[in-house]
Recover the amino acids of this structure.
């Protein structure tokens, strides 16, 4: 028996009791603010809109229409919480008829722990990829927790970056130290300076210069010597039992950074050097402090363009520039990344605010469909960001959505531990089978056969769509006041939208036909089968596993 | 007990024998549709890659240098190819060397695992603007067998960087089998036929509705296509190729009861079914520490599996139609480091290639026993990674210089350099 089934069987009694209890929660869930006053966010969003509108006018494009609030709500939930909203949340959202519903709910979502938990994982992936890293000396969980704290407090991104590059400390205590220890080389008790230099430039400047490790960059202006000069900034970093530190001297000798050519045993000393704008780099301080100061310097446009492109990518599923970490050098003309970067810099490098202004923009609130459009024309709209992109959900978003859709209540930090254990087990089994994405995130992906098989026949679908009282399918069937409400709740739970008229009619007919069967037990079974089948269809639909 | 597949071929042989005895000239179009039934030149060619993950040492395997500073302590042993000696860690392969060609002078330019892997698997150095397809993806997409109902590009065993479809699309990503030889999961539906039909009909309607106003939806998502492919696979008898229960105990023992050994056996069964490209992965060669112990344990797995695979393919008349390529992302340094390990060495390394129109019994290239004191040392008669990939494609019957339009609007050839025709027969 699989662990997941054991958990399900063993916990039926307890969890049933819990569901009844949580149905009338003692603590009502926190609510979004009743009003919102954010003229500066609106002004930033309008700047984005104006920039895009100019481009659309130039290209003679009419962008897609504005999407329904529920669809935008689903997008936000997937991007910020890594899952779809629960039926409980959707119903409250639908009942909220005060002005600026989406803006208020977004604020609420940013304060939810699910945001810090999920978004921190996405940023950690940007920093250290999906590797597990060196055993014992690299604690991914600590890095993620630390990042989650940064996000919760909305600390300026420049401070976060400085801390990651230049911070000292023990990897078990100071989560940020794991950015360095991830590059620890076991047999040399040292750090891989090349790896660190490559990761630093990719993550914080949005450019790939890893290839300059061995040769000059093919087209960008990175030379092999630039790379070595940057790597030398990590040349005095040491992993000691007391934590990560910079050491100027070892055994009375100054610590130098050497580059070795094949067959060369003495190596050549390389001094730290930045490839451009030396004046941004202070002459005093530890090597890593100097590098950090140069990277986050207010005039270093690459730094803020990089995070703007990343956050745009995390919200849309597609970055403004592809690939996300190899964006062109800033030019003389102001492009959209500059607009975002300037607004970001003007407001204390706040990630919350960057997310809010992008989410408030016309681009984020567009529909992903245009009635009657030709494929050629649709491609033009896509190219100019005039229609919301179709993007395959990440594995954890798909299973997150499945697990959430299997319950009516919100699964979050407040959920009972047992629910979360079930969620965790389901997620890790599922992820391996669904297929981890390569390290290069945010690239266009199509569906695959293993994914189709897993969604159609996998144990997760089977367990989670069962019309028993433990699952939402069963609860919806038992507790909805009418057949109409059954159909409606199934669609809302799985797809965060209401059924169309024809969908409603089709499943109403199926439910009514089932009810007509005799005897009553057969009718009850037949109704269960209709709801299970409906859940199966919804889980397997394109809409479910794609952002749209 | 013979498998169903071998029974089919036995039947065909019987037919041939009877017809030959009657003096009838043979052409059997009614049988040619079944890839499984075809042998030798009538079969379209397939590719089996044995992937030595982490970078296998050339010195402890195909290119020993006993008695030199690089050579360490291992002996070399004579092989079935007169004049050729290989490492004593490969005694069973020593009996098969007349069937293969050893290239001791493969040269790469990438010394990092991910970049090196992508280079060797695709023939192109990684490029931030374009992901290149692995050779297996090119083969499967260019030469699909319509009679095959299971994926045509399959990767067996665990590997960090699995072969992908690159710009050809995720459709050609290798189908991954983590535990080779066991039946595949998620291939049966748990509801009645009626309910399954109702589910599929409803699903199709929902997906059609979604496509309204999104004319690119199916091209972008391939949702309906992957469902159809999955359903076809669920119904297929060819799933038997994934399991090895029906193989005689002696055969299973010959390959070795390891994930890699089972993988090699499954690879043979898949190729026999008509699958175009299979990779079997053997990780564990990244021996920065204790190089010798690492190679002792991994080569003890490789040796019986590789030898059994070659023998088995030969016995079944499948070797001529199957390219078998054994390679990793790079080689390892001639010097031994202070941790008794060897580090990454892309300047030269060995690969072994057999079957599928490759010449046999050849040794290409020569490497020095000491490292010359130059910036980029070179072996004699170097074979570059792109040349090797172009040669494999040529052997598979795929024009290496055919240009395809990539999604970024840049036409690309399947390989960046011309093949080494001298490696191929005729």
């Amino acid at each position: 028996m699989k662990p997941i089934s054991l958990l399900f069987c063993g916990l039926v009694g307890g969890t049933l009791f819990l569901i009844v209890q949580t149905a009338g929660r003692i603590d009502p869930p926190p609510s979004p603010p009743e009003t919102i006053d954010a003229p500066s966010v609106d002004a930033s969003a309008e700047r984005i809109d104006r920039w895009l509108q100019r481009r659309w006018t130039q290209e003679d494009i009419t962008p897609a229409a504005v999407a329904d609030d529920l669809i935008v709500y689903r997008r936000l939930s997937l991007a910020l919480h890594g899952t779809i909203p629960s039926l409980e949340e959707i119903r409250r959202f639908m009942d909220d008829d005060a002005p600026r519903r989406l803006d208020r709910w977004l604020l609420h979502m940013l304060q939810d722990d699910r945001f810090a938990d999920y978004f921190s994982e996405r940023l950690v992936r940007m920093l250290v990829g999906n590797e597990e890293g060196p055993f014992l000396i690299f604690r991914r969980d600590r890095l993620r927790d630390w990042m989650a704290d940064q996000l919760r407090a909305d600390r300026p991104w420049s401070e976060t970056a400085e801390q990651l590059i230049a911070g000292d400390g023990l990897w078990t205590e100071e989560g940020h130290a794991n950015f360095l220890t991830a590059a620890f080389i076991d047999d040399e008790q040292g750090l891989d300076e090349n790896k660190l230099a490559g990761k630093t430039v990719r993550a914080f400047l949005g450019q790939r210069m890893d290839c300059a490790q061995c040769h000059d960059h093919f087209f960008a202006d990175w030379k092999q010597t630039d790379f070595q000069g940057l790597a030398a900034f990590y040349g005095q970093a040491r992993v000691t039992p007391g934590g990560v530190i910079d050491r100027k001297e070892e055994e009375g000798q100054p610590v130098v950074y050497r580059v070795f050519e094949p067959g060369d045993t003495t190596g050549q000393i390389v001094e730290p050097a930045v490839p451009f704008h030396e004046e941004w780099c202070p002459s005093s301080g530890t090597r890593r402090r100097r590098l950090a100061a140069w990277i986050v310097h207010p005039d270093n446009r690459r730094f803020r363009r990089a995070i703007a492109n990343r956050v745009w990518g995390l919200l849309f599923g597609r970055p403004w520039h592809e690939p996300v970490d190899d964006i062109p050098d800033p030019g003389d003309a102001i492009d959209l990344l500059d607009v975002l970067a300037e607004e970001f810099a003007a407001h204390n490098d706040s990630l919350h605010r960057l997310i809010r202004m992008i989410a408030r923009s016309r681009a984020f609130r567009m529909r992903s469909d245009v009635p009657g459009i030709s494929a050629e024309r649709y491609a033009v709209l896509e190219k100019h960001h005039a229609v919301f992109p179709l993007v395959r959900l990440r594995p954890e978003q798909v299973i997150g959505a499945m697990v959430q859709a299997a319950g009516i209540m919100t699964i979050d930090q407040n959920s009972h531990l047992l629910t979360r254990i079930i969620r965790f087990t389901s997620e890790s089994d599922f992820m391996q089978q669904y297929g981890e994405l390569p390290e290069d995130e945010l690239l266009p992906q199509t569906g695959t056969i293993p994914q189709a098989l897993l969604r159609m026949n996998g144990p997760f679908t089977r367990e989670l769509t069962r019309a028993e009282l433990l699952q939402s399918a069963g609860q919806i069937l038992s507790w909805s006041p009418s057949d109409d409400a059954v159909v409606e709740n199934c669609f809302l739970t799985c797809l965060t939208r209401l059924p169309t008229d024809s969908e409603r009619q089709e499943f109403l007919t199926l439910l009514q036909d089932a009810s007509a069967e005799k005897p009553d037990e057969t009718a009850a079974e037949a109704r269960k089968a209709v709801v299970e089948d409906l859940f199966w269809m919804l889980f397997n639909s394109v809409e479910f596993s794609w952002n749209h | 007990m013979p498998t169903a597949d071998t029974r089919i071929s036995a039947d065909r042989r019987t037919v041939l024998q009877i017809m030959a005895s009657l003096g009838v000239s043979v052409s059997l179009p009614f049988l040619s549709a079944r890839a499984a039934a075809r042998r030798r030149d009538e079969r379209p060619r397939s590719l089996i890659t044995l992937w030595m993950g982490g970078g296998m040492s050339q010195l402890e395997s195909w290119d020993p240098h006993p008695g030199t500073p690089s050579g360490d302590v291992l002996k070399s042993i004579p092989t079935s190819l007169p004049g050729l000696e290989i490492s004593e860690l490969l005694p069973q392969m020593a009996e098969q060397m007349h069937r293969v060609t050893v290239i001791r002078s493969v040269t790469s330019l990438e010394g990092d695992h991910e970049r090196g892997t992508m280079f060797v698997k695709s023939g192109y150095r990684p490029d931030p603007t374009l992901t290149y397809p692995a050779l297996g993806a090119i083969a499967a997409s260019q030469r699909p067998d319509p009679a095959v109902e299971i994926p045509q590009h399959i990767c067996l065993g665990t590997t960090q960087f699995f072969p992908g479809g690159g710009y050809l699309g995720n459709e050609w990503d290798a189908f991954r089998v983590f535990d080779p030889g066991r039946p595949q999961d998620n291939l049966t539906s748990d509801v009645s036929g009626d309910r399954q039909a109702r589910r599929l009909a409803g699903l199709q309607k929902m997906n059609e509705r979604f496509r309204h106003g999104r004319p690119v939806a199916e091209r972008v998502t391939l949702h309906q296509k992957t469902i159809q492919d999955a359903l076809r696979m669920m119904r297929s008898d060819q799933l038997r190729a994934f399991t090895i229960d029906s193989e005689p105990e002696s055969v299973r023992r010959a390959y070795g009861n390891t994930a890699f050994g089972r993988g090699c056996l499954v690879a043979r069964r898949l190729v026999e079914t008509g699958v175009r490209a299979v990779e079997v992965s053997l990780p564990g060669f990244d021996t920065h520490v204790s190089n010798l112990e690492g190679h002792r344990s991994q080569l003890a797995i490789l040796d019986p599996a590789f030898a059994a695979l070659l023998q088995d393919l030969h016995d079944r008349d499948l070797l001529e139609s199957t390219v078998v390529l054994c390679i990793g992302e790079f080689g390892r340094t001639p010097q031994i480091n202070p941790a008794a390990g060897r580090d990454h060495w892309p300047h030269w390394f060995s690969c072994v290639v057999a079957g599928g129109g490759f010449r046999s019994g050849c040794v290409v290239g020569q490497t020095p026993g000491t490292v010359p004191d130059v910036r980029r040392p070179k072996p004699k008669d170097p074979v570059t990674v792109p040349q090797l990939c172009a040669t494999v494609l040529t052997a598979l019957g795929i024009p290496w210089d055919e240009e395809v339009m990539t999604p970024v609007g840049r036409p690309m050839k399947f390989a960046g350099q011309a093949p080494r025709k001298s490696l191929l027969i005729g």
